[in-house]
């Protein structure tokens, strides 16, 4: 039987390619963004990142003892991700937007849909669905975070990681996270959880692409 991680990659490949072949994404990764567009992206990212750990906590509270190793994995991952929304605020501050602007910002419909689905899936669909959210976001960060942060740095004439600390740090960090995520995904054997994780991955790729496209 094919390991579930390999099956997940295969079943969600079209959604992943939908992100990486999107013309807006390709242009941003290749040429960077204007200050206005990058600021708009960070404002949306703040609300995605702020909800990441609460979604994981909602899922962890629903994970049955039969999947306790997933609950422990979520605990550890939440600890590692704690406070990362502050990195987004720091980047906003570096490009001229204060934290009050981020807190007052009304997220786009795509961000609201993304967060709403992830909470619903963790609570009502299957708590393991949170691993689909994690897989999609970590693929995006680990594969595209490095080139994107470099393009932004060059286009906006930023020095070092100032203004791109969140994206550039996750490019390296999430490459490491992917190895541990692969291991935990391969421990899941029930088909209902497999289907929920696949659905979540496709949904997260789709709406993150729409979020990026709308900036």
Number of extended strands: 0
Structure class? mainly alpha
Largest sheet, described in full?
Answer: none
Approximate shape: globular
CA distance, first residue to last residue: 42 Å
Q: How would you describe this structure to a colleague?
A:
There is one protein chain. The protein is mainly α and 215 residues long. Helix content is 80%, strand content 0%. It has helices at residues 4-11, 13-20, 23-31, 35-62, 68-81, 84-94, 99-104, 109-125, 130-156, 165-185, 191-213. The chain is globular, with a radius of gyration of 17 Å. 42% of the residues are buried. The model has no long low-confidence stretch (mean pLDDT 91).
Quick take:
The chain is an all-alpha fold. The protein has helices at residues 4-11, 13-20, 23-31, 35-62, 68-81, 84-94, 99-104, 109-125, 130-156, 165-185, 191-213. The protein contains eleven helices and no strands.
Write the layout of secondary structure elements.
Blueprint lengths: L3 H8 L1 H8 L2 H9 L3 H28 L5 H14 L2 H11 L4 H6 L4 H17 L4 H27 L8 H21 L5 H23 L2
Annotation keywords:
215 residues, mainly alpha, 0% strand
């Amino acid at each position: 039987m094919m390991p579930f991680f390999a099956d997940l990659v295969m079943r969600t490949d079209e959604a992943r390619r939908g992100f990486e072949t999107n013309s807006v994404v390709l242009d941003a990764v290749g040429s960077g963004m204007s200050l206005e567009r990058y600021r708009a992206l960070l404002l949306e990212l703040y609300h995605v990142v702020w909800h990441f750990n609460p979604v994981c906590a909602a899922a962890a509270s629903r994970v049955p003892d039969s999947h306790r190793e997933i609950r422990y994995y979520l605990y550890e991952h939440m600890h590692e991700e704690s406070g990362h929304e502050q990195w987004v605020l720091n980047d906003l501050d570096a490009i001229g937007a204060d934290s009050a602007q981020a807190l007052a910002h009304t997220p786009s419909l795509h961000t609201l849909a993304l967060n709403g689905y992830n909470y619903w899936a963790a609570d009502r669909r299957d708590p393991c669905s949170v691993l689909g959210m994690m897989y999609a976001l970590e693929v995006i960060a680990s594969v595209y975070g490095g080139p994107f942060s470099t393009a932004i740095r060059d286009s906006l004439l930023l020095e070092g990681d100032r203004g791109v600390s969140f994206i550039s740090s996750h490019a390296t960090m999430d490459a490491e996270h992917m190895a541990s995520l692969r291991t935990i995904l391969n421990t899941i054997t029930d088909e209902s959880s497999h289907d929920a994780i696949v659905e979540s991955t496709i949904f997260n790729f789709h709406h993150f692409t729409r979020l990026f496209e709308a900036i």
